[in-house]
Amino acid sequence: MVKFKYNPQSNVADEFICHDEVLESLQFAKEHLHDEEMLQNILYTAQAEKGLSHREALLLLMSDNLEINRQIEDLAKKIKLDFYGNRIVLFAPLYLSNYCVNGCTYCPYHAINKHMPRKKMTQEEICAEVTALQDMGHKRLALELGEHPTMNPLDYVLESIDTIYNIKHKNGAIRRVNVNIAATDEESYAKLKNAGIGTYILFQETYNRQRYESLHPTGPKHDYNRQTEAMDRAMRGGIDDVGIGVLFGLSTYLYEFTALLMHVEHLKAVFGVGPHTISVPRLRPADGINPELFADCINDDIFVKIVACLRIAVPTAGMIVSTRESKETRERVLQLGISQISGGSKTSVGGYSHPENKDDDSAQFDVCDNRSLDEIIYWLLQNGHIPSFCTACYRKHRTGEAFMKLCANKSIHHFCQPNALLSLQEYLTDYATPRTKELGEKVIAEEIAKLSPESAKFVLQHIEDIKNGRGRDFYL
Ligand code: SF4
Ligand code: SF4
What we know:
Elements: H1 13-16, H2 19-31, H3 36-46, H4 54-62, H5 66-84, E1 87-97, H6 123-136, E2 140-145, H7 154-165, E3 176-180, H8 186-194, E4 200-201, H9 209-215, H10 224-228, H11 230-236, E5 242-245, H12 253-271, E6 277-279, H13 300-313, E7 318-321, H14 327-336, E8 340-342, H15 373-382, E9 386-388, H16 392-395, H17 400-408, H18 413-430, H19 434-448, H20 453-467
Parallel strand pairs: 1-2, 1-8, 1-9, 2-3, 4-5, 5-6, 6-7, 7-8
The structure holds iron/sulfur cluster (2 copies).
The site of one iron/sulfur cluster has 10 residues, from helix 16 and helix 18.
């Protein structure tokens, strides 16, 4: 029995992300790397689909045994299907403002980047952006903005959320707004919760304290504890769906992977539920940022294996990959565990309503997958996935523990699958190109045949409603 040094129940960053425990885990994994019996035992444990500890998952990640790696891939695919089926949820980032007081050395929005054009959208400009997003077919957004106490105060974020939820353009609607803002206090998190946000997303960037402090030399984000303990404050403030992640490439991936799983263990130990989502962004080129300056960038094969091992270690967390990744890489990771992707994204402020600015120099990073949302939907359908615009759970109060229970016993499928088909039908009726519509309707018909009679009846009835203009937004 391994005795962990760290304390997942502690509220202190250095105790639940215990540096010594990360190092010991790395040492332990190195020593047992070729212990096939141990690796097989871990895989056996993982087959119960209840997750793995950080040490167990790290051993799988580090293994170079071809047979073990084949089994990891197979199991990740199985868990993906058992928990998420063939559905992929779509969202788009919306950049509200790139004013920022922080000095993150890997981000072009850092305060001392004087040639970055600074923009902050007015409520009218937000309306134009959201209308453009609605016209693409999006229903779910992730709000992004830099940290700036006077330019981007919380009131601005709250007003913007209210604006977004109230824009009704043709058949469009944004039904879920997730928010990615800087670490803040409990009171502010409670206000975000009251504003009706879906998930609160905050990437740790790197869990390695020393590395964190050197990469964030200035600004309030320099405070490692403030960042690392943010999700605790968010959950105490009433937000029960939180999304975590690291920016792979800032420190060694083995360190980040281990610490990320310790963060999951901490949230489970203190709040009874793990993160709602885990994001796996990788460092990308951007204005003034050369990823080659960062020695810890990871290649595609390692990236793919990280996704597979996270899928096995935390089956109940949705996993997100953005347009930072290419079509080819996204194809590989979609099978292995990713359940949400962005599509048709712009990473600049005002990029959706002004698509003519192709080389917008206010972009946070270069998008690698530049396809339109419709092209992405078509590609997903062609590859056997069901694109979903579902936003049902938080609107039905299936959040936090209630959601996790349904997810852990795999009964969330009964909601996800009908909702996916209905939200896809809305997309096909209102926004799709003819070829996407044709393929999508064929896929929907095939999928309805696999539903229970009761679910099939519900879906068929409302598909007719959508097609005949009797209504939209049907969900369980
Ligand atoms: Fe600001 Fe976020 Fe960029 Fe850091 S990563 S400079 S906090 S926008
Ligand atoms: Fe997500 Fe819930 Fe919709 Fe399933 S039913 S896709 S879990 S919002």
